[in-house]
Amino acid sequence: MRSLLLITALLFSLLAQATNIEVYDFDNDQQERTYKEITTELRCLVCQNQDIADSNAELAQDMRHKVFKMLKQGKEKREIIDFMVKRYGDFVLYKPPFEGRTLILWIGPFILFVLAVWLMLRAIRKARERDQKPAIESTQLDQAHHLLEDDDTQSGNQE
Amino acid sequence: MSKKAIIPLVLFLGLSGLFYYMLMEMNRGEYNPRDIPTEFIGRAAPDFTLPSLFDPQKKVRSATYKGRPWLLNVWGSWCPECWRESDYLVALKQRGIPIVGIDWRDDPADGKAMLARAGNPFLEVGLDPDSSMAMDYGVYGAPETFLIDADGIIRAKHKGALTEAAWQEKFARYFQKGQ
Question: Which of A21, A87, B20, B52 could pair with B58 in a Cys bridge, judged by C-beta atoms 3.0 to 4.6 Å apart?
Fold first, then answer.
């Protein structure tokens, strides 16, 4: 029973794959590796949270095909990435370049983190100071004792 | 109550205001978070040579249109916004605006059927089955309309269905003189 279920499941997974298989004939392993690198670094413009390797959008299929064709023509990875950036801008890169314009993107989170840590430490220090500081000064405490004693003697007299 | 207690309230109101503003902009069509900044304004329009939709033996060439401003419209019969846009393009054609269509990733029969049904606003229609022209022009959705001037420079671009408002804002001035 169990193996039957397993076989059915496997058959279904084959079906699912058969619908979007692309067969590319690479010249060598290095070329195939470069292809995989490039397609995972380029963003699908249609479904914008996927890279083109993952996306089944038609434009992504065509972009993959273009990457393959350019590799076959002997183009370098750099040239292919530049080709796409020239047409679709930095947005097509999953990893934006590190430069003046994108500095805030890269450094922003770290600045925020340092700021948050600083604020937290300050809050902790303040809370600690508040805890350590006695609620009233010792001179005030003496005064209070005095008053209470006075009170006691007075009330004692009245009884 | 200490002054600090209102800080979260102020932040909350500020953020609400910002969200409200952005949503209104999106509603008016002024802002689309999926838009990517265009790279093409002021650049030379890439040359293309594509088979014609009506006669695959014939070629549609961008070079044919050098010397006058013209519109390049990327569309497909699969694209609902293109159906919506179609009437307006036909009206532009009647005003004498030269428009070249690119039927993008489409079944030629469907493309022809749509033009037969909705009217054909194009001087010529090129077929782009594998996105070669689309990629050269940085197109990632249809419809998209480019204005190419007499020197072959892309001067304006509109994403989404072309409307009179968009026409007046982006394109009209390039056709005022000489037309």
Answer: B52
